Amino acid sequence: MTVPSFTSSSDLVKNSSHGRAPGGHWLGALIIFIIGFIALFGGLELFWRAQGHAPSINDSQSLWAQQRALINKNAGNPKTTVLVGASRIQLGFDTQVFRETYPDRPLVNLAIDGSPSAAVLRDLALDDDFKGLVIASVKADWFSRDKWGLSQGYVTRYHKDYKNSLDRQFNTAVTLWLQEHFVVFQHNLGVRSLLKALINHELPDPFYLRTYPDRSRAADYSKMHNVNAHKEERVRRMRVIDQNEKPQSFDSWREDLKAVAGWVEAIQSRGGQVIFIRFPTSGEHWEIDERRYPRNEFWDQLSRLTAAPTLHFQDIDGMSDFELPDTSHLDAKDRAEFTRIVQSAVERAGLLSPD
Question: Under 8 Å CB-to-CB from 299, ≥6 apart: which residues?
């Protein structure tokens, strides 16, 4: 018969490193690590804020998908308003002003920087949950079939990777919260960036673009060292496009527009509305736009061919009065007033009404 072995309390004390509880060493190390991490994190945060940096969102397909999900969250709501387009509406439309003016209208920002959003409009047309208003910032060449796929990756990400993934939704929400509240989560302001800056004796200046949680943006061109160089680079890119890309013929454009007209009709058939707005460009940029797709030949035919009302910046009082520092985008200081002008024009078209 085996006799059980008993250990006295004095033996336990001896076997636990002179009285420390098992694991005490690791617990102490963990506490030191946490304190050190908080000190480093807090120090970096305070340092960058002292240099004039502010929290800004790193835009992504996942954040776009989070916005897209708001349409299904507000399924069937005829007051849901969706912004569609590229960087002009993303920078030029002040979403806070809109929400203050129309507090009962859910606003969804589906603009995509650098990408005509035909695939987004098509996606809304196919979604029976959407019965609201689309405010689309477009140019005539936006409707060319060869550009429809440029924003499809965002639409695909929403339907395949985000819509039914609680894990993806949670990760996106956490990422958004961190970036909204802390400067150090910007791409260029981590520890590595600080070390590089110290080595080169040159700290990064606050970026002129600031992105908000709803993906709207504000461009403060006063933070640029050389606005003229930025402007010239944009105009240079327009010249390259003008030289290397042949404009679409009207007959081909009109043929492509038939599908767009079908998307508009699908939205209208559910009680929704679509309005196409030509946001301003200026200087040589506008001259190239007009030469490639003359307004009277293309834009002025848009409403007739799609049954969607249209607004052109040349026809709206005050819409052409703003300086465009890079010939294409509004400065942050002008966003609010510009947005009020746009809202008033859409109201006159009968698609918005303040309650």
Answer: 140, 278, 293, 310, 312
Q: Where is 305: in which H helix or E strand?
A: helix 302-306
CB neighbour class for 219 (10 Å; exposed up to 12, middle 13-18, buried from 19): buried
b (16+ CB within 10 A) / e for 316-331 = beebeebebbbbbbbb
Q: How far apart are the first and last CA of the chain?
A: 90
Q: Do 221 and 227 contact (CB within 8 A), yes or no? A: yes
Do residues 81 and 273 touch, judged by C-beta distance below 8 A? no
Q: Is 80 exposed, middle or buried (0-12, 13-18, 19+ CB in 10 A)?
A: buried
The pTM (predicted TM-score) of the whole model is 0.86
- For the segment 186-237, what is each residue's pLDDT rounded down to a tens digit? 877 766 776 777 777 777 788 899 999 999 999 999 999 899 999 999 999 9
Decide: 95 and 212 in contact? Cβ < 8 Å. Answer: yes
- Angle, helices 118-126/250-269, rounded to nearest 10 degrees: 30
